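Need Lysozyme's 3D structure for a figure. Predict it.
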Amino acid sequence: MSYKLLTQIVVLLVIVILCIKRPMLFETFISAKPLPDFTQGIHGIDVSHDQGKVDWQKVARSGIQFVYLKATDGITYTDPKYFQNLAGVKATHLEVGAYHFFEAEDDPKAQLDNFLRHIKGKSLTLTPMIDVELQRAQSATQIKARLQQFLTALEQQIGCKPLIYSYGSFWQVNIGTEFNHYPFWFAEYNQTMQAPSKLKNIQIWQYSQKGSVPGVDTPVDLDKILDEQQGLEALKCNY
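Structure prediction for Lysozyme:
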């Protein structure tokens, strides 16, 4: 038996033993993936309590440039990690905004009051975002009317146009072209973005919901600014 063949057999035996004795270690080794390169373009993340405790200093060193934090949902809910995340982000150079999860069946004024209590005077730097993605057994007419009421009052309060976040099929049925004058955050998890042809003013593309970012121990949404020349300037807002 040649020395080379003997060496190959020994290596193979070591791998087999590792599989049997330390399966978790081996699984981690073979499933490890390189982290994305965030130095090309303007990338961000959006987080909630689902991401647990985040090391914002590591996030800031990763190449990520902006963050949106879930603040509120509906009329009474506050994300339990919002204020902790906000304090952590503000200790970095990252640009930061907050978002509200819009509940289609809830009173828009009461929802707005909940959101404003959590964002005004908190030194946020990016315009707020409204996440609109669940129908909650409401008609498109009801959703549009309540969303318009919410957005109009929010813009009056902060002096900036808020972002609308949604995905293609929901936009087509429940939002539509009458909201094209608002900046849009489009969610689609593909190699290339394929938005509805009539959807305009897309500022941010959420291209993954399973991203890996240093400092975040769970999968996280990855987002990208589409107009790299203008960058984040179009979304900056002081309120």
